[in-house]
Design goal:
This protein is an all-alpha fold. The chain has a single domain, classed as Recoverin, domain 1, CATH 1.10.238. Helices cover 59% and strands 2% of the residues. It is built from eight helices and two strands. Helix 2 crosses helix 3, helix 3 crosses helix 7 and helix 7 crosses helix 8. The mean pLDDT is 90. It is a peripheral membrane protein. Keywords: Calcium, Cytoplasm, Cytoplasmic vesicle, Endoplasmic reticulum, Membrane, Metal-binding, Repeat.
Length: 176
């Protein structure tokens, strides 16, 4: 058939090939099998789940062709940004590139924090770096938690006072 109104024909065609069970929806598992990083590794489960949840209007744990089309545009925007920060065109983002990316995005984060992210999200190697999927995941989580922090930091002073449960609520509602 033809692409529904408002859906890019290429996205529709890809949706049909990704929808392995022909349900008319894309699950996290199907999405994971469809997306690859520059090193041909599949996107990780956490990033796929974050993105499905972002475009799942029915809260069913899956997306329809419209959600998939929007998701592809979203990924393309992140990929363009990723490629800007991947200065050496290696297909991954190194420590220095990550530091520069955060700075250019307006985040004032310490080298120690970037090192922590590399330790958590990079593939183990002598020169750890971040693939596209983890870059999207980190940026989405950073943006989400920053938004939550700013809701509490009404005076924009860079500090907030929270109860433990308020903190947990922020994390659970933004990240899971």
């Amino acid at each position: 058939g033809n692409a529904p109104p408002g859906v890019d024909p290429e996205a529709f065609s890809w949706f049909q090939s990704v929808d392995a069970d022909r349900s008319g929806y894309i699950s996290v598992k199907e999405l994971k099998q469809a997306l690859v990083n520059s090193n041909w590794s599949t996107f990780n489960d956490e990033t796929c789940l974050l993105m499905i949840n972002m475009f799942d209007k029915t809260r069913s744990g899956r997306i329809d062709v419209y959600g998939f089309s929007a998701l592809l545009r979203f990924i393309q925007q992140w990929k363009t940004l990723f490629q800007q920060y991947d200065r050496d065109q290696s297909g991954s983002i190194s420590f220095n590139e990550l530091q520069q990316a955060f700075s250019q995005m307006g985040y004032n984060l310490s080298p120690q924090f970037s090192q922590l992210l590399l330790a958590r999200y990079a593939q183990r190697s002598s020169n750890p770096s971040i693939q596209l999927d983890r870059f999207i995941q980190i940026c989405m989580q950073l943006q989400s938690t920053t938004d939550a922090f700013r809701e509490k930091d009404t005076g924009l002073v860079g500090n907030v006072r929270l109860s433990y449960e308020d903190f947990l609520t922020m994390v659970v509602t933004r990240m899971l």
